């Protein structure tokens, strides 16, 4: 029997990693559960209680690979590819310190050893392959390097896909997205965004000081002023914009407040629900002390938001995507059986090799399955299948017994880059996720112990839900 016990403010809570339910415990039940945890001998009466607990906590296992029909899965994922990322160039006009100075390991330096741009011919062949294998591609994402350096190529690719749609070669037009550093958003590229209804994700790391510490141009100057100006320009043209923020150990030390950051983005740019994530540095860069500061900042951000929801002050709710994802999973019991979408999406490198995600474009370990020269044959699909199997939490030794497995989302790219293995779990985000999950479970449990507070919270949460935008296109 699997459970996790929490205690705060005199309230004892049990969380079931299997059903994702959580319960307030009376003293008697708590004592029995502690005895079970310590594997102590139970009295006759306690054994009856144990049976009751067992019946409550055990439900059909969710997210189990054994309950997964492989043929149905194959048929299904060949119907829909959630996202196809085209790395149109590995060149960049910036020299962010994440990529250049902080790390000695070549894997952290994303694609900068030599610059290479994708050709239109490569893009067309790759798209032909993917549209042949998949019935539908939900999103085409442009990524780099800095993808806006290849504005004409992006325009030609969009036109090529549009032609496929208007000629009936593909049934449904994908949506378009781009992840950009936001420094080169001239009218030419903005017209392309407008014509093809792009969602634009801009990297912005807080205010000027924080942002300019890491995100510098080739000439060594900070990029904040230009990026802020361009975000406003995009908003004026009614282009949907999301913000992706990277938190570094240095910014945590100067008290980066996640709630304040979300507030700042909403007040300054009118952008809600930013995707705020810790920089994927190795554990020695994220010391234990700094990781704890990071966790405190996120949990404080959650507390402030949940307090504001309970009080009905919805105009002071400044959610961030991490919180929304965990809260949503816990409230809806949406069990996440896989660690991340890699493999259910794909990426094309500038030279035309196919990968399970842009984060796994790496020559030292060949994650590729197919290329523009080989196409995608049955052997490539088998290779992709075995990659996808490694994504299931139930097949990962650590995840299969982790209490947070129901609501966490990992990143296989971060696992590989920080731990040299897809089976490794990046502890910075694992610990952060667990801490946030615990905070939400305890907060909701405390609320549920007072029906008036709980009812009020639920009503307000429903009102809020209607205003929070959907999932960010990044992950
Ligand atoms: S929190 Fe980490 S260890 Fe736990 S299930 Fe998620 S990825 Fe696995
Ligand atoms: S979570 Fe990471 S590895 Fe997985 S699809 Fe997203 S970026 Fe790629």
Quick structural summary:
The chain is α/β, with parallel strands linked by helices. The chain is 44% helix and 12% strand. The strands form 2 sheets. An 8-stranded mixed sheet has the order 9-8-7-6-5-4-10-11. The protein has a 3-stranded antiparallel sheet with strand order 1-2-3, covered by helices on one side.
Keywords for this structure?
475 residues; alpha/beta; 44% helix; globular; 18 helices; binds iron/sulfur cluster
Rg over CA atoms, rounded to whole Å, is: 24 Å
Small molecules held by this entry = iron/sulfur cluster
Determine the N-to-C terminus distance: 33 Å
Give unreliable regions as ranges: 59-68, 106-112
What is the β-strand count? 11
Describe this entry's structure for a reader.
- With 475 residues, this protein is α/β, with parallel strands linked by helices.
- The protein has a domain at 1-59.
- It has 18 helices and eleven strands.
- The chain has helices spanning 27-37, 44-57, 70-77, 97-100, 120-133, 151-166, 187-195, 208-214, 224-236, 249-253, 258-269, 288-311, 321-332, 378-389, 397-400, 412-419, 427-448, 451-465; strands at residues 4-8, 11-15, 22-24, 80-87, 136-143, 175-180, 198-203, 241-247, 275-278, 346-348, 354-355.
- The strands form two sheets. The protein has an eight-stranded mixed β-sheet. A three-stranded antiparallel β-sheet has the order 1-2-3, covered by helices on one side.
- Helix 7 (187-195) links the parallel strand 6 and strand 7 (198-203).
- Helix 1 crosses helix 2 (44-57), helix 5 (120-133) packs parallel to helix 6 (151-166) and helix 13 (321-332) crosses helix 17.
- It is globular, with a radius of gyration of 24 Å.
- The model is unreliable at 59-68 and 106-112 (pLDDT under 50).
